[in-house]
Amino acid sequence: MCVFCKIINKELPAKIVYEDELVVAFHDINPQAPIHILIVPKEHIPTVNDLEEKHKELIGHIFLVAKKIAKDMGFAENGYRILINCNKDGGQEIYHIHYHLFAGKPLGKMICE
Ligand code: 5GP
Ligand code: ZN
Q1: Where is the active site (predicted)?
Q2: 23: nearest Cα among 67, 65, 55
Q3: Fewer CB atoms inside 10 Å of the end CB: C or N, the chain?
Q4: Tens of pLDDT, residues 20-76
Q5: Quick one: 3-103 is in which CATH superfamily?
Q6: Distance of alpha carbon 69 from alpha carbon 48, whole angstroms
Q7: pTM value?
Q8: Residue boundaries of the structural domains of the chain
Q9: Which ligand does the CA of 91 lie closest to?
Q10: Torsion angle of alpha carbons 63, 68, 73, 76, nearest 10°?
Q11: Distance, CA 100 to ligand 1 centroid (Å)?
């Protein structure tokens, strides 16, 4: 079972900030910004390449969850960044789709090194 499935199943601890029937969101263990949250679907979908028509509603739902977390945690107005990595060249390390949510300071330009 992958690391995020273990967090979803509560077999691994995480600082959960939001949970519903479709997703769980928790603080990244190695934050890259003052606020760094991962929003993860409960369904084990390895990468963006594995998304199908049936996932359309889930994907839309995740953006609404990101919006809700931003509002509830108080950084909606200042702003934030949502990011997804796909496969090796995209820098993906955990092969269970997750949306990075970064906030808490001006994040500057996106740099793709
Ligand atoms: P990726 O590079 O796959 O897009 O991002 C994986 C993210 O998961 C990284 O930012 C990494 O710090 C985070 N991460 C890896 N293992 C764990 C864990 O066990 N718990 C939490 N909370 N985050 C993790
Ligand atoms: Zn998984």
Answers
A1: 98 (tele-amp-histidine intermediate)
A2: 65
A3: C
A4: 999 999 999 999 999 999 999 999 999 999 999 999 999 999 999 999 999 999 999
A5: HIT-like (3.30.428.10)
A6: 22
A7: 0.98
A8: 3-103
A9: 1
A10: 70
A11: 9
